[in-house]
Design goal:
Structural class: mainly alpha
Helix content: 55-70%
Number of helices: 3
Oligomer: single chain
Number of domains: 2
Strand content: under 5%
Order of helices and strands: HHH
Shape: elongated
């Protein structure tokens, strides 16, 4: 008996629209009949969202930076070697 994936097990979204959005700007409010908010409210919402952010510790940040630098260095080396190899090959063929 085949098993269901998550997508198959989901019931269709309410309202019969694919994706579950009701139109508008993607904020879930529909985009119609919504009142524009002022700069103070916007600032309050930004601050509230920033309070939810979980910032990495110093040790985690250093680890992430090292991982990124090693990965970028490795990819740069691979790209440089491939470039050098293809250059030599093209010069050998067309010379």
């Amino acid at each position: 008996m085949p098993t269901e994936t998550r997508d198959e097990a989901k019931p269709p979204p309410p309202g019969g629209k694919a994706g579950g959005k009701t139109g508008g700007g993607g904020d879930g409010r529909g985009g119609r009949g919504t009142k524009r908010r002022g700069p103070r409210q916007y600032y309050r919402e930004v601050v509230a969202e920033l309070r939810k952010v979980i910032y990495p510790s110093r040790k985690e940040l250093i680890t992430y930076v090292v991982v990124v630098l090693v990965f970028v260095s490795a990819m740069t080396a691979i790209t440089a070697l491939l470039d050098f190899g293809f250059t030599r090959l093209v010069l050998a063929v067309f010379g």
